[in-house]
Each structure stands twice: as structure tokens, then as C-alpha cells.
């Protein structure tokens, strides 16, 4: 195996005034991005090489003043070897014949 890819989504519940600090943290790290943003909630997408880095991002986001909660909503790990394999002909991305 050549490594791992962890794909995760996080939901943050925060005070309105915390958003500039959340944006600054996200902009400083290429592995995370804000997918959806509301007044006091946002969804963060995270793609990391290991689970430890994911947990570090969760801790960093939780430490932002005004962040009330960080919830891991989705987490999937795949080996890089498997991700780089071509799809079988006739299969959609969901694995169902087209």
C-alpha cells in the first residue's frame, strides 16, 4: 500500500463573530475547505493522509474562540493504490452498470 486518503466532513456550530477566525484557519491549510456556510453553522470538507491529521484539524477548529461544537459527520478512508486504480468499463462511480 502506497498510503491512505481520508475524506471527511465536519459540521461546525459557532457564534457569528467566530467566522473570520474559522476562515483564516481554513485558508492556512490546503487540506480543508468551507463547503457551505451559514450565519452560525458551516460544513468543512477535509482530505488528509492520515486520521491523526484529521483529529488535529478537529482540535484546532474546536479551539477557535466562538466555536461551540465540531461534529464529524462523515469519514471514509481509502488506500491511494485503490483510488488510483481505473474503474472497470461499464461501471458508474456508484458501481452500478450503466
Detailed description of the structure:
It is built from three helices and four strands; from the N terminus they run βαββαβα. It has 98 residues and is of the alpha+beta class. It has one domain (4-82): Alpha-Beta Plaits. The longest helix has 12 residues, at 51-62. It is elongated, with a radius of gyration of 16 Å. The protein starts with a strand and ends in a 15-residue tail after the last helix. The mean pLDDT is 89.
Structure summarized in a few sentences:
The protein has 98 residues and is an alpha+beta fold.
What order do the helices and strands come in, and which of them pair?
Blueprint: E1 4-14, H1 19-27, E2 32-37, E3 41-48, H2 51-62, E4 67-79, H3 80-83
Antiparallel strand pairs: 1-3, 1-4, 2-3
